[in-house]
Amino acid sequence: MTAGxxxxxxxxxxxxxxxxxxxxxxxxxxxxxAWTAATPGRLADSVxxxxxxxxxxxxxxxxALYPAVEAAMGSPRATATMAADHVEIVRRIDALDAxxxxxxxxxxxxxxxxxxxxxxxxxxxxxxxxxxxxEEMLLPELDAHxxxxxxxxxxxxMVAIAHPH
Length: 165
Prior knowledge:
This protein is mainly alpha-helical. The chain has helices at residues 9-30, 39-73, 80-103, 110-145, 148-162.
């Protein structure tokens, strides 16, 4: 591999593609106090995005990416904290989903509004930190130890896991 070549560019690119939707969580949280007729739809859309894109992305990482990182590092369980992030992310998505369903179309009461903001800001922060940890800690290991062919096979596995149809 030549200097500067990153076999992990497909995952870095996917993170860049996901980032605007992750940033939208922060914007939604900031706007909870200024509820409009469009807010319930935006919240439902964000929950759908999290369930349909981020959760499958996490599942693919756990099945294909993390084992490759552990092999490259020669360290079983080196990615255990990353998998723990996924557990917390899914727990927060579930809580957000239940809250969005409970609130419905009407503006939330004060307690619901505070909880909506907490879940949205929390997801935003955890997802940004998680992406950063992957890109700064894990992916350089693969860039240093994985051939382009191995990386292509791993990314093909990730796509098959995340999007089986």
